[in-house]
Amino acid sequence: MGKSSAAPVFRCAECGWRTTKWSGRCGECQAWGTVEEMSAPAMARSRFGLLVAPAPATPAVPITEVDAGAASARPTGLDELDRVLGGGLVPGAVVLLAGEPGVGKSTLLLEAGALASEKGTVLYVTGEESAAQVRLRADRIGAVGARLFLAAETELSAVLAHVDAVQPQLLIVDSVQTITAPGVEGTPGGVTQIREVTAALMAVAKQRSLTTVLVGHVTKDGSIAGPRALEHLVDVVLHFDGDRHAQLRMVRALKNRFGPTDEVGCFELGEYGLIGLPDPSGLFVSQRSAPVPGTCVTVALEGRRPLLAEVQTLVAATTLDIPRRVTSGLDSARVGMVMAVLQRRAEVLIGKQDVYAATVGGVRLTEPSVDLAIALAMASAAANLSISGSVVAIGEVGLAGEVRRVPGVARRLAEAERMGFRRAIVPAGSAGLPSAEGMRDDRVTGQGTLTEIREVTDVQTAIAAALAS
Question: Which of 1, 108, 301, 452 is deepest in the core (most CB within 10 A)?
């Protein structure tokens, strides 16, 4: 006998996995307690027993007759935020901004809301603070506007009532985990509540072409809290991160239906709010009068933006049976791999010594192109010989000791030349690219300060070239 078409279907609220039998654990993402029964939509039946869908709300039209101007982006006034969004906020779009507690999410959106209120009405709904507390922060950072409305609410019905009364062009909800939907089971911030609240706010945003920004929390591992389907529903997912003990903050687009996902916006968090950093390279390089052993400068790519960063290492004698390995701002696994390569392929004996490796300015460097700078800095510290401050190193180090090519070499070299560096150590074949070859004259940057591009095939040759400078 065949299965009935009316058999219940169960779906995981985290990843969308479906099954015909209930299970306490999802078979796809292995999450516990997320499998729930789906309610089938009510559909009419014709006299022949066939399902009949309801009439569409609007008729289908040819794509040539659709007005694309209604979905054009509107600048927020924060250039770094507009860079990540792809020009600004799109009417009717739903944006999810996630980040760790205290990173500055509320400050960023309060500043953006105040600037947007100069062109239209903005409604800022806070579920974590009172209106007076938000006003104090707005006075401190200078984010006060006559058409910026504040409301301290935690119920969805009250939020929708404020939307009807204010008729805003931009709605900011801080945060979606604190809003509850009456009549829906589950605790505030739970999977069911977040899904219902987000669905209701998205429906209002699409019906009224209301740009909506939702603030989301993150879990211990850095992922966005709540059901995974939440990220699939919204139009834009932004991640706001930064070291709590540093002033640098970065906004990255994890998903963007209206713009690129390889851009990054840089801000400096100070006493008076967030300040955009169109040129943040100087924050990650130490200012010193003379070179110091154990330091090397590299160029990392944050999205499509090249950033100069300095890697610092310290090699010291140990008094312990097991030497210390301490990293800050670097991937500890890659640092350990580079140490093993230096010991085996370049005869840099640091295996029985304490090794410390860190970045400058709180920036986190995880891409493979930083390997060569780490290797040169460690070799410099072990030999107690300094690398010239005019040298920049770019490349990935392999387990066989080879230096591999990395993407965006020409863009990285252009940034190094703009910042005044004269020599570059790059993987073999990188300088032969047409774009990188043009770095040798003044036609590209107008400065012509990068006078030598040294190509290396292995880490031992790179160390000799760096220490000979």
Answer: 108
